[in-house]
Write a structure and sequence with these properties.
Chains A, D: Pathway: Polyol metabolism; glycerol degradation. The complex is a heterotetramer, with two copies of chain A (about 190 residues) and two copies of chain B (about 120 residues). With about 190 residues, chain A is mostly helical. Chain A has a single domain, classed as Serine Threonine Protein Phosphatase 5, Tetratricopeptide repeat (Alpha Horseshoe), CATH 1.25.40.340. Chain A is about 65% helix and about 0% strand. Chain A contains nine helices and no strands. Chain B has a single domain, classed as Phosphotransferase system, mannose-type IIA component (Rossmann fold, 3-Layer(aba) Sandwich). A four-stranded parallel beta sheet of chain B has the order 2-1-3-4, sandwiched between helices. Chains in contact: A-B, A-C, B-C, B-D, C-D. The complex binds adenosine-5'-diphosphate (ADP) (2 copies) and magnesium ion (4 copies). The site of one magnesium ion (MG) has 7 residues of chain D, from loops.
């Protein structure tokens, strides 16, 4: 990943988030507070604006800018979580010759450090975990991502607002898992261009 | 559970109004009435306005939440003078009412809600 | 304990302001800063404004209280980036901060306050 | 007690509350929220206004009016407590030939039913209990009342806001005990007139 691909990644992620803003909110309605679409839309609008005004010329600068904007602008739990993810990626990316899968893995670890979620707690990490695994084996595809997103549906939420409704969270896709799905679809697209 | 609603009693106007906004977000279909303060500016609770909130709530079964002990005493008096079925919970005001609202909205039964509230019961 | 203060983080502007009024009543000499919402009208919490409140608080030792889990995550990030000594309590927001404020005002030590807060700890 | 003495009782109680409003608030500062003076002042102002406009012509009417005004106008814990006290007195007073000590005792019982306080919890009942006892033995004097009020000083609060400061409540007179002291001083004065 270089800075150009990284910028393209964010542009594509932003497009997807804005296009699916209402759907993200809809997912956050039965098991949350109906704001995930708004949260991600606001956060990504700021990321894009910052890219345009600050014109980052290294991957490090880009990741830094993404981190601070998501952290301070998203407003929901996903703010500190995505913020931590990009902060973790920023740290890992400084190492020489580190493979991209290890960078994403460092992002995942930061989400877990911040949110204390385990696999199958019905959170965004239920997408990040299989994505990291697939990346390590050079097998990440859109289908892998979609399946990971879908796999959150039968789970009972153990973390975040959805955990308050307990059993009733079963049968719904986790909104953060879905937005993470968009993030990784955008990554594949940017890399393919 | 359309006939089960929530009432929130706080010593402070803003706390009650703020909780209303917080739980409306997750429980738009639940009938919620809040009372905060003696007036917008004066801190305290009064029996009258609690009774009013109970009557204004569309639901006949009410889950009631309060902040400090004196609010509970007024709530108990209002409960005794009302025909509605009112249960007062000794749980954290914000956290308890949020959980109850989210569960009511999700269609969970009163018994199951009580089970969950028991886990966060505190001496107040 | 003039060097120990309180910060309150809520998802909602009014809840934070209301708690401020409630605890100012019993703890006029304690340094208290509150943050509520992303703005007066938008519900949520943000890392920036929490860090700002931490810096604005005159005290170097802070007892921190929050409403829901996502506020805690932002609070933890702000704590990590601040030089102040900050302790985050998993206790009811209104009730916990009220008790802490009353005890700080009465000159009770941080250790003894923690003892009392432990009794109302909840999973949040 | 008849209605004239009862009205005089309330007038004298009101005078004392207004005169000592600041002191009541001062007592409520180290162990409370500094509003007991305001609360009692507001409540009694309404009681006196209601007496003037409604001109109760029986003790029953008077007690009813005191109850509703204290209940709805005081605003603090003392509102439902004094309100319950007068409600209890109202109920007892309906019985034929009931001695005044039994009426006051019924007030005390209602305070306890409402507030769940026991003797020595450092509340207003630490004045009501010795007052009832002295009344039963026909020995109520100003000195008995003052001593009861003073006796709350060394106690550790177990009920009400003062209980939040635990040990730190020791060494201060309880504000509700002090206002109850004023109530009984006013009663003795009204009866003596
Ligand atoms: N502790 C956690 N660990 C990992 N992910 C979490 C955690 N809490 C919440 N999430 C994710 O955040 C998403 C909700 O984000 P959002 O709606 O923006 O925040 P909020 O719940 O504060 O309104 C959830 O769908 C879930 O994927
Ligand atoms: N549970 C209780 N039982 C009996 N008396 C109580 C109880 N709680 C509080 N009180 C009395 O009420 C007084 C405080 O009244 P006030 O200051 O008007 O109310 P608040 O504490 O709500 O501000 C206390 O001094 C005490 O005498
Ligand atoms: Mg949400
Ligand atoms: Mg939210
Ligand atoms: Mg008081
Ligand atoms: Mg008060």
């Amino acid at each position: 990943m270089n800075v150009e691909t990284g910028i393209r990644w964010m542009e594509l992620f932003n497009e997807k988030v804005q296009a699916e803003k209402d759907y993200l909110t809809q997912l956050d309605t039965p098991i949350g507070d109906s704001d995930h679409g708004n949260n991600m839309s606001r956060g990504m609008t700021h990321v894009i604006e910052a890219i345009e005004t600050q014109k980052p010329d290294s991957l490090e600068e880009l990741l830094k800018l993404i981190t601070t904007n998501l952290l301070s602008k998203v407003g929901g739990a996903s703010g500190p979580l995505y913020g931590s993810a990009f902060m973790g990626m920023l740290k890992a990316q400084k190492e020489d010759n580190i493979p991209w899968s290890a960078v994403i893995k460092s992002g995942l670890e930061s989400i877990q450090k911040r949110g204390k979620a385990e696999a199958f707690d019905k959170t965004m990490i239920d997408v990040w975990i299989p994505v990291v695994e697939a990346l390590e084996n050079n097998q990440l595809t859109d289908a892998v991502i979609d399946q990971a997103v879908e796999s959150t549906k039968p789970l009972k939420a153990k973390k975040g607002r959805a955990s308050y409704v307990g059993e009733r969270s079963i049968g719904h896709i986790d909104p953060g898992a879905y937005s993470s799905g968009l993030l990784f679809h955008a990554m594949l697209e940017a890399e393919a261009e | 559970m359309a006939d089960t609603g929530i009432i929130i009693i706080s010593h402070v106007y803003e706390i009650a109004e703020g909780i209303n906004r917080l739980i409306q977000e997750v429980a738009g279909d639940v009938s919620i009435k809040v009372v905060g303060g003696l007036s917008k500016s004066e801190i305290g609770t009064s029996f009258d306005s609690i009774l009013e909130a109970i009557n204004e709530n569309q639901a006949d079964n009410l889950l009631a939440f309060y902040d400090l002990g004196s609010a509970k005493m007024n709530l108990e008096m209002a409960k005794e003078m009302s025909d509605k079925s009112i249960t007062i919970y000794d749980v954290p005001l914000v956290e308890g009412s949020y959980i109850a609202a989210a569960l009511l909205q999700a269609g969970v039964s009163k018994d199951d809600i009580e089970q969950q509230l028991k886990e966060i019961q505190i001496a107040k």
